[in-house]
């Protein structure tokens, strides 16, 4: 018989906790909905947008990139409010359920209205819903673990990230096809259905997983007390460097798609759409997660101790390299060659390697560095770095526009600018990270206030 009350502490086990399947299943369906919608946004804005009379109201490429990155900024800005609701008032479960309904409403707005008004309303609702649940879902994964099975935390965050890309892999193939053959209403409606499915999956698992209660006044004391302020200050400094990574990475959904549209998209007899090329990222992620976990990381650890911050630094350099590859591709396009899409897939491979070392590492690192009542808040700070990166990209794209809406920094120089910025960031980050002292806080851990760590980066 199921209890009428939710479990508030992790199940004591040396294996995987019950309920992880529901959380991972929810994440896979939610990510299908998000990446499916995200993958067609730039194409929709530049080729399908209409006014209230039904006549074309297309955006320029620079305008579309600005809208895209402002939306992404919102998605990763609202986690701070979701975390405050979760850790301070409602708890993670209720926050996720209620904001998931807002999320569904955003998809509905996009599916119903093809104008700029429908676009703006839909994107705002999705930013609030998606952003609000983000820190809660990733922190909820860690909440299922205690001292007996904490050794599995790194592995489960890898599989959690695997589920993200499993969902996005299918959506980035299917949704552009639906847009091309059935129009925006169907293409935006299907992700909405999957978000509803994600909400139901999470609700079905409510008795299986641990529900950490909201911290209330204790949360405020912990968050804004001396220790909380010290922890957040240290992490915000590190995350400011991570923001530059996201300024580059999320351009795979904007600038790289626009670049792909100018390339030879015939791939082994299959005529891809520009938006479908982004599928390369989740497919590579699915292959790279086990490759890095079981081959590359063990091999590198024989040469150098791979602390989380060292992984981030290496990931930054890989990301800069991927934009150098994009710059090379752009130089060929400017010269009148029409390069094959396989060259961009090579750039994706380099970028995806960087993503594995930055994004997956960052999720686990953020959870372990957060005191018990501050898990969602610290996760939201990690996500705020994504918002900052997208805000930076959006502002750069706005500032470089001329009066006609075209870019003053175009072609190869655009990509080299971001590559240089990322490389410089990696160098400065290495100096700052060497002074960071690691902590470890896990649910139910008797040593929650500190394994502390004299180990540097």
Explain how this protein is built.
The chain has 457 residues and is mostly helical. It has one domain (20-433): Growth Hormone, Chain: A, CATH 1.20.1250. It is 70% helix and 1% strand. It is built from 14 helices and two strands; from the N terminus they run αααααααααββααααα. The chain is globular and about 60 Å long. Mean pLDDT is 86; it is low at 445-457.
Question: Secondary-structure blueprint of this entry?
Answer:
Layout: H1 20-47, H2 61-77, H3 79-112, H4 116-143, H5 153-182, H6 184-204, H7 216-224, H8 226-249, H9 255-260, E1 266-267, E2 270-271, H10 280-301, H11 308-334, H12 341-369, H13 375-399, H14 412-433
Antiparallel strand pairs: 1-2
Helix pairs in contact: 1-2, 1-4, 1-5, 1-6, 2-4, 2-13, 3-4, 3-6, 3-13, 4-13, 5-6, 5-10, 5-12, 7-8, 8-11, 8-12, 8-13, 8-14, 10-12, 11-12, 11-14, 12-13
